[in-house]
Amino acid sequence: MTADPDVTGVHERSRVTGSAPRSSARDGSAGRTRVLLTGMSGVGKSTLVHLLRDRGLAAVDLDEGYTTESIGLPGEVLWLEDRVAQLLDGPEDVLFVAGCASNQVGFHADFDHIVLLSAPPEVIAQRLRVRDTNPFGKSPQEEAQVMADLGEVEPLLRAVADHEVVTVGSPADAVAQLLSAVSADREGLGPSHGDDGRERARQNLSKNAQETIKTSPKIGGEGERKWHAEWALLPDGLARDVLFVVDGGRFVAVTPGVPSAQAASDGAERLPGVVLPGLANCHSHAFHRALRGRTHHGGGTFWTWREGMYAVANRLDPDSYLALARVTYAEMALAGITAVGEFHYLHHGPDGTPYEDPNAMGLALVEAARDAGIRLTLLDTLYLAGGLTADGHTPLEGPQRRFGDRDVAAWAQRVSGLRVHTSGGPAHLRLGGAIHSVRAVPRDQLALAPDCGVADGMDPLHIHLSEQPAENEATLAAHGLTPTQLLAEEGVLAPNLTAVHATHLTGTDIGLLAAAHTTACFCPTTERDLADGIGPARALADAGVRLSLGSDQHAVIDLIEEARALEMHERLHSLQRGRFTPEQLLTAATAHATIGWQDAGRLEVGARADLVAVRLDSPRTAGSDPGQILLTASAADVDTVVVDGHQVVSEGRHRLEGTSRLGTQLTAVLNPLWDSLPPTRNTAGD
Asked: How far apart are CA 584 and CA 581, in angstroms?
């Protein structure tokens, strides 16, 4: 097996599962605790050692001077037995030791606890590619070896482990789980590895850990936790010295006027700046993130931009889509976004053939959101036609074949395979539906979509609406109606509908959207990047249409900028200031209900415990009134993000940034998508 300076697998099955201790096993160690952290490459052993040391605990990474290479098996790493024995016989009351080697089984009897650190294969592969602390795992051969060891060696380690910690959450969460498990054992479970009850507990922990990989959106305890904010934007306005108490992922107390010293003595963690509710990104195409900074040569139009989008779409598969979406959603979390509405139409293989699991691409998004620590509303999208002309709809062609299901019934059948949090699926997932546009769905299918069971009742249903004048012109030519009028005649307009963009509307269109109590989702940074135009946001709001915001193609991921742009675009259009109040902008930026999370977006008792702390001391925000922070801050000023009571961002750093910053991870994912990309031409819809 290939050597790895950070961690190696255990090669010989008999040595891993054997029980004979080495002759110098530790004796007379009553009152002292020895904990082995073991696992494959990329699970975070070295990172946890550093965090344990930061807490003042004795922790040693055995790769730092305690290993050698086997003479008989080149590349095979062994522990230096005398040095490790001396280390374990040391005076420390509690000692954590991290490592994995072929001869470690001879030391298992010396440990009171053996903790397996694990992570899903795709997470490990991503970490190996982007980490800058260790070169191992970056070549295809080394990565393949690690993947092979996961299948052969990790089960053997799991069989002898007392506990398992799945390290897909933040390193701090992993340390908390580790210490909680070890503390519980010290208080009564006992250290005997041969105890039958302990073996059953070990098996249950392993099963639970695997279930966590499949379904848990985040890692960490659900116990009570407290935060204190100098300023917070509560439902009734700006408040000072606010104490937040969270239990079970919900606010159980929100109390203004609590002095910081009192809160600190009560165990509250300090939040800098001003605290906002979690932001809701109500319109996203995750794979469009690859287009940022790649579509500006030669000017161009929306329709030439689309060619680059198709080219990227044609290169993605479930694995690469997972990697891209994971870092994209992590970038959202860094910007204070706690839930995203993903307008998902990249369904099938490049030639339109469904994957073995027809929802493989959608499930990649579900997993990516879980890893990034945010909630996901998967707006699975109906996409049946390639475009619309005066003569009717054109067939899907080229990369569009990946987007299409045969008809509404086939779409609904495929989506029925997905499970949401209310029916046994992942807790961070909500399922909704989308109609791509009137260009991509024929009229006879439009009427069927709202009643097909994918997004009926109060489940969200979204649609691109009148983003470009060309869409309006084609619909008028084909049907004699505007897109909004067509939706009204076919019964699509309803309170659960969100019209995305709604840029080129008539007065009649605005009245129809208002009468149906719909929502309009504006994406200002995309609409200006693609030269779509400035939509009638104020007119829609005055008519009674709710407003939400999205980053759409992710020209930037910054919901604070989207909120500010809503006001600034109105100023440019109307030549007036103050078209929206700061409170109205915050309401649009926290419109979680429009993507199906009615219990989020407010800092109040009973709501989901989402918090975003925005610094007031950056060069952008210094001197700002906390109540006007959306008019001055940017995503770069977000310091802390809490999602459902779990801290996902701390001091501006995402929990996935254990060994490398997110920019490095994004570069590693994005650049290969453009390497040797063939030129693409297409003139159909987006």
From this structure: 5
- Phi and psi at 409, nearest 5°, equal -65, -40
Give the mean pLDDT of the chain. 84
Which stretch of DSSP H or E encloses residue 175? helix 171-184
Biggest CA–CA distance in the chain, Å, is: 90
Task: Give the neighbor-by-neighbor strand order of the sheet with 375-382.
Answer: 279-284, 337-344, 375-382, 429-435, 461-465, 497-501, 519-522, 546-549
SS3 271: strand
Q: How far apart are CA 490 and CA 323, in angstroms?
A: 39
The answer to whether residues 643 and 329 touch, using CB atoms and an 8 Å cutoff, is: no
Q: How far are the Cα atoms of 40, 45, 332 from residue 9, in angstroms, in the given order?
A: 6, 13, 35
Distance CA 70, CA 68 (A): 7
| Interatomic CA distance for residues 583 and 585, integer angstroms | 5
Only one residue has tokens 């104020």, namely: 538
Cα 154 from Cα 232, distance rounded (Å) = 46
8 Å CB contact between 81 and 20: no
Distance CA 612, CA 607 (A): 14
In this prediction, residue 145 has a pLDDT band, given cuts at 50, 70 and 90, of: confident
Beta bridge partners of 429: 376
**62/81 Cα distance (integer angstroms):** 11
Residue 6 pLDDT level (bands cut at 50, 70, 90): very low
DSSP class of residue 43?
S
- SS3 state of residue 224: coil
Quote the CA–CA distance of 489 and 499 in Å, as a whole number.
Answer: 16
| 49 contacts: CB under 8 Å, gap ≥ 6 | 37, 59, 60, 61, 96, 98
- The phi and psi torsions of 408 (rounded to 5 degrees) equal -60, -40
Cα–Cα separations (whole angstroms), residue 336 to 369, 563, 615, 650: 14, 13, 12, 11
Give the catalytic positions in this structure. Answer: 501, 552
3-state secondary structure of 107: helix
H or E element that contains 212: helix 196-215
CA–CA gap between residue 442 and residue 395 (Å, rounded)? 11
In order of 24, 87, 210, 385, the CA distances from 90 in angstroms are 14, 5, 35, 71
CA distance 535 to 541: 12
At residue 20, the pLDDT reads 39
Distance of CA 474 to the CA centre of its chain: 37
Strand order in the sheet with 225-234: 250-255, 237-247, 225-234, 269-276, 611-614, 638-643, 646-650, 653-654
Work out the number of other CB atoms within 10 angstroms of the CB of residue 668: 17
* pLDDT tens sequence across 27-82: 445 568 899 999 988 888 988 988 888 778 889 999 888 887 655 555 567 888 88
Whole-number Å distance between alpha carbons of 340 and 458: 17
Neighbouring C-beta atoms of residue 395, cutoff 10 Å: 12
Residues near 582 by Cβ (< 8 Å), separated by ≥ 6? 627, 628, 629, 630, 631
Q: Which residues contact 274 (CB under 8 A, 6 or more apart)?
A: 229, 230, 231, 232, 233, 238, 613, 614, 616, 626, 629
Task: Report yes or no: 60 and 79 within 8 Å, Cβ to Cβ.
Answer: no
